[in-house]
Design brief:
The structure is a single chain. The chain is elongated. Helix 3 packs antiparallel against helix 4 and helix 7 packs antiparallel against helix 10. The chain has 11 helices and 7 strands. A 5-stranded mixed sheet has the order 2-4-5-7-6, covered by helices on one side. A two-stranded antiparallel ribbon has the order 1-3. It is α+β, with helices and mostly antiparallel strands.
């Protein structure tokens, strides 16, 4: 009889513990939330779990502090390295007439460095987008022209033609969208075949605006298309380019998710690729 009563009590107690655990968002806090018990062993278990969890929480805080310090160091380093990059760009701009080919080559390499540095900065900030973005009415035409102008030398050297027709306005962060567009354009140039033609345009939808970038590049195989936004995925096209990192489109999708923008790609091998950004418009903004 005593054994039966004890079994029922223990079964009831552990059911309460299980229910408490299921209801917790942060399960490592179980030690603080265990139901009261008059049994000595339960009190000992509770104290041991509490001490163990306290150690885990302290370790998590330590890792978070280390991660924060590292991210802040990367951000400060990027700001420091941008100064000499800008200086080199100005020197090349001023001296280009003296020796056009040489300074054009330096300018292009400097532009590549700046793009990689930007990628590092945006990756470091991608988990804290809310600290850096500013949503405002954005003229996509201006953003596209700004990105094309930034890569002017690189696009001319690679004989890239571009058609732009983006009359629609959206609400988003100009700086982050410029970075995403920049990555998409650089990808199109990287995976071109012959003379590259870019078409960048917008279309109005029922609940938003689509910004589309079409190219006549090598295209993406069906098997690769579903994975191009994965971190580090380079695919068959990437393997033919030794410098492909598989980070550009991964970062684009990550930033789009933070900004509430959908991104997807359509492509066929030998025919080109179309990337689409879907800027939603809320019912409140659409009435303004």
């Amino acid at each position: 009889m005593w054994l039966l009563v004890t079994y029922i009590q223990r079964h009831h107690y552990f059911r309460r513990v299980e229910q408490t655990l299921d209801q917790l968002d942060q399960r490592y806090l179980l030690g603080e939330m265990l139901p009261d018990s008059y049994r000595l062993e339960d009190k000992l278990y509770r104290e041991m779990i509490r001490k163990s969890n306290k150690s885990v929480i302290e370790r998590i805080h330590q890792i978070e502090d280390e991660k924060k310090d590292y991210r802040e160091y990367i951000e400060s380093w990027v700001h420091e390295i941008k100064t000499p990059i800008t200086s080199i760009a100005l020197i090349c701009e001023n001296r280009r007439k003296d020796n056009e080919e040489e300074f054009c080559a330096i300018e292009l390499e400097n532009q590549k460095i700046e793009n990689y540095v930007d990628m590092t900065l945006y990756y470091a900030r991608s988990d804290k987008v809310y600290k850096d973005y500013m949503i405002s009415e954005t003229n996509l035409q201006e953003v596209v022209y700004k990105v094309l102008a930034k890569n002017r030398g690189y696009l001319i050297r690679n004989q890239v033609q571009a058609e732009v027709d983006c009359p629609d306005l959206v609400y988003t962060d100009k700086k982050w969208i410029a970075f995403i567009l920049n990555q998409m354009i650089l990808n199109s140039v990287k995976y071109r075949e012959n003379a590259l033609m870019l078409k960048i345009y917008t279309t109005k939808q029922t609940q938003g605006v689509w910004l589309m970038l079409e190219d006549n590049g090598t295209g993406i195989g069906e098997n690769d298309l579903t994975r191009i936004f994965e971190k580090g995925f380079t695919g068959s096209n990437g393997r033919s380019h030794q410098r492909a990192t598989g980070m550009g489109l991964y970062l684009c999708r990550k930033l789009c998710q933070k900004l509430g923008i959908e991104i997807w790609a359509e492509s066929a091998v030998g025919e080109g690729t179309r990337m689409t950004l879907d800027f939603p418009i809320s019912s409140y903004l659409s009435k303004l």
